[in-house]
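chain below, 218 aa
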Amino acid sequence: MTRRGLIGASVATVLALAVLAAVALGRLPAGATLPTHWNAAGEIDGRMPAAMALFVGVAITAVVALVCALVPALEPDRARRDAGAPVLHAAWAGLLVLMVVIEAKVAAPAFGWRLPALLPMMMVGVLLIVIGNVLPKSRPGFFVGIRTPWTLTDPENWIATHRFGARTMILGGLLVAAAAVLPLGPHGRMALFVVAILVAAVLPILYSFWYWRRHRAG
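prediction:
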């Protein structure tokens, strides 16, 4: 999807979520609260007044979309902007879907919906998989990508790191999704989630450094 298409999708998403929030709020009694956070066992461990719970998600979605829309305008090099577009667009679209899922989860009690407690966690895993699939298309840029001192100063390091990072991010996404659906205890689920994030986020940084050391020595 193009940047213009994503801007249109973002506006439509924010408006739809605002309508959903308003309808949900109208179905709830005065002074009602809604769950906004779930622990690793899928149990509610955080609540907010209904209006705040419903409209905070709308506001966050608007801010996320605005940031994603502004990033290309801040990129001073058009070639770099175009090179980072696939990753930015995938992350942008994925975040919109994630925010829809989170808003639906928060609003669910107002409509009597029974959504899986760990559905947002599973969608985070899907988001990582989506981003991982487009990472190899990324080329050096100022704002988008795995930006380390070694990738920013060496295009070959950037390409190699993003190819490696694609695999680790997909693996991390699969582990996050598994943590959401497997019948694990709270500690086991949280441990698997932490391992998944380390795999997705830390291993590419270490690989970038290793690649630099290896080729510097050569």
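The first strand starts at residue 33 and ends at 38. The chain has a mean pLDDT of 89.
thats it, cya
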